[in-house]
Amino acid sequence: MILSLLLAAQADTTRLPPAQPIPAPDFETANILTPIQQLFATFEAGDSAAMLRLIHPEGRVTATGTRATTSGLRQMNWTEFATHVTPTTRFQESISDPAVEIDGDIAMVWAPFVVRVGGKVSNCGVDHFDLVRDNGAWKVMNLTFSSRTTDCPAQ
After folding, report:
1. What residue ranges do the domains of the chain occupy?
2. CB burial string 114-147: b at 16+ within 10 A, e below
3. What InterPro entries does the record tag this protein with (predicted)?
4. DSSP for 62-126?
5. What pLDDT digit, counting tens, does each position of 23-56 carry?
């Protein structure tokens, strides 16, 4: 009897801790990030026409930081921004650790970014995207970003 109790006690100490359930996938967050990833693909392809299909035409792009004007801000509408997205000015942008907030038909994404040109880091900062759901599809309304050329991640 004592032997079986000792074996039972020993077995309990070698058990794995209780499994933690894996949270269900957050499909709405994935739906929010999809047009942003598609937007980045248009930058890399230099395809401004495809870019304009992903945005809401009433939106704006606002830049701050070292790549902005002397006042610290550079603003343009999406059509003006599209003139910078060409096959000869292609660039790769990626974000990491996005914070996503959603309420009904509006969403916000805040994430650090890195831009590479020719595989080399060009600049970095933080992107802030405002998105709206228009006719059932998420569109990027506004993009506001900081920009710097120092202290950027190397990867």
Report:
1. 26-147
2. bbbeeeeebbbbbbbbbbbbeeeebbbbbbbbbb
3. FrzH/put_lumazine-bd, NTF2-like_dom_sf
4. EEEETTS-TTSEEEEEHHHHHTT--GGG--EEEE-S-EEEEETTEEEEEEEEEEEETTEEEEEEE
5. 555 788 899 999 999 999 999 999 999 999 999 9
